[in-house]
Amino acid sequence: MSMGSTSDGLGENNWAKSIVLVSGPALVTLVPMAAAPAMPAMAAHFAHGTDGALFAQLVMTVPAVALILCAPLAGIVAEIVGRRLVMMVGLLSFVLAGTAVLFLDSPTALIVSRLLLGAAGGAIQTCCLSLVGDYPTGGHRERLLGFMVAASSATAMVALMAGGHLVDRAGWRTPFALYAFGVPFLLMAPFCIKAHKHIATSEHNIFSPFRTMWPIYLLASALTIGMFMPSIQGPFLLQEQGVGSAEVQGTVTAACALVAALAAASFGFIGRFLGSRGVLMLTTVCFGVGALGMSLAHGAFLIGCASAVMGIGAGLVEATCATMIMSRAPLSMRSRATGLLLSAIFLGQFLNPWVVGPIRVLCGIDKAFMVVGILFLCLAGMILMGRTFWGPWRGERAVRA
């Protein structure tokens, strides 16, 4: 894709706009991933009188609550006042709320700052996905979606590795300084994203797209539970096997993000070659095989290899679901439709500790990975038989690259 091309009519600063759109979701990836390497140390810090592990997982995932609620609202506000203004407010709030953890001592204040961060992330990513919908389909839009997910996965990998290093050297708070990377894009966005007039529509019902596209949203939530297994549950699996270094845990978990970046960058080709059904099959099989591998593996290297298998599916989830949504949502509700997709994705992230946690308590963390792996292989079998989730997009390819 030529970032500097203006043939699509999207403006003279199309290359800069593309950079901001690709970087927006990458910043949102920092919302959970900057906190991930700090979880074991944070759990020990807050272990007095409470379940430290659960609190640490909530600190990582509670922004998803705000994002779930605010992403569709951000879509409606963007339709009324314009996407540039919503984007700017989101970026400013992201930097302020993200770095605030460096100075907070109260657990309550920490949770509040994380909720504000989630709301900011919802505004940023809703606007980015909606603006990508302005690009022409048939390859251009799909490649940009792939680059967005690839940048997000690469950011996750760097955040996990750098965050682990910072935790080992300077304590659990230091990875939260990574949110300051939003400043350059906050300064760049006003000059490359044009002010958009509000979109005329007869209604601003948040849930209008849900009536016709709910199977895609439901599938997105289920896939995201699997996508976050390496980053949310992986550090505890490694700790159970005696791998206590946050830097090593972050590096092992980053194997998933590295492969996800490569898979996402290849999304245009993979989607064209396999089609929607094939991409969904590949995703669920990789989640199933990878989770089973992590449950049976011993040692950081083998767990990292199994995590990398899960990364193949992780790199395809968001781009596949976003392509399905954009191909169905009319312009008048595109911002709302993408906002609901983000809600579905982050709902899966938030549900991960609550779905996996009881299994971990009853059977152990290794058995929890085994159960998740078996469930995803069953889902792959259902998709293969065409009996689950497939009807609304039967026969349609996810990508026309």
From TrEMBL:
Keywords: Cell membrane, Membrane, Transmembrane, Transmembrane helix, Transport. It is found in: Cell membrane. SUPFAM superfamilies: MFS general substrate transporter (SSF103473). GO terms for molecular function: transmembrane transporter activity. Signal peptide: none annotated. Residues 1-398 form the Major facilitator superfamily (MFS) profile domain. The chain crosses the membrane at residues 53-78, 85-104, 110-132, 144-164, 176-193, 214-232, 252-271, 278-295, 301-325, 337-356, 368-390. It is a multi-pass membrane protein. The keyword Transferase does not apply. PROSITE patterns: MFS, SUGAR_TRANSPORT_1. Coiled coil: none annotated. Its main location: membrane. It holds the Pfam family MFS_1. GO terms for cellular component: plasma membrane. This is MFS transporter. It comes from Paraburkholderia sacchari.
